[in-house]
Amino acid sequence: MTAEPITVVIDYQAQPGKHDVASRQLATLVAAVVAEEPACLGITICQDPANPTRFLLYERWSDRTVYLGPHMNSPHLRQFIGQAEEFLVGPPRISLWHEVFDARPSSARGGHEPAA
Fold first, then answer.
1. 78/82 Cα distance (integer angstroms)
2. Cα 39 from Cα 5, distance rounded (Å)
3. How far apart are CA 1 and CA 16, in angstroms?
4. Domain boundaries defined on the chain
5. Is residue 105 pLDDT above 90, yes or no?
6. Per the CB 3.0–4.6 Å rule, which of 44, 67, 73, 92 could disulfide with 58?
7. Is 6 helix (H, G, I), strand (E, B) or coil?
8. Distance of alpha carbon 46 from the chain centroid
9. Is 42 in a helix, a strand, or coil?
10. Does residue 15 register a pLDDT over 90?
11. Check: CATH 3.40.50.300 for 6-101?
């Protein structure tokens, strides 16, 4: 069976008054992941404009096994998790998805065809 890319959606809730700290910590984590983990195909951090304590990460990974194994045990993620109780309400909600169709122009998705 061939590994196929997955999309990971993560919903974080910052503690009241700590959304700036959470934003900086998430940006630091994402920079490390993108720089050090070649299986990561990109991460976008979004913030709820109506509730700045809510963050959503949209991640693309080469396959599920890499995300759930080496990534979850990486030093930078373990460090983030160890510090998260200082600025997050609790653990994030994480869901894994597989792509069935991509409506972005081919230039925005690197020339790949929609998933079948």
1. 6
2. 9
3. 45
4. 6-101
5. no
6. 44
7. strand
8. 10
9. strand
10. yes
11. no
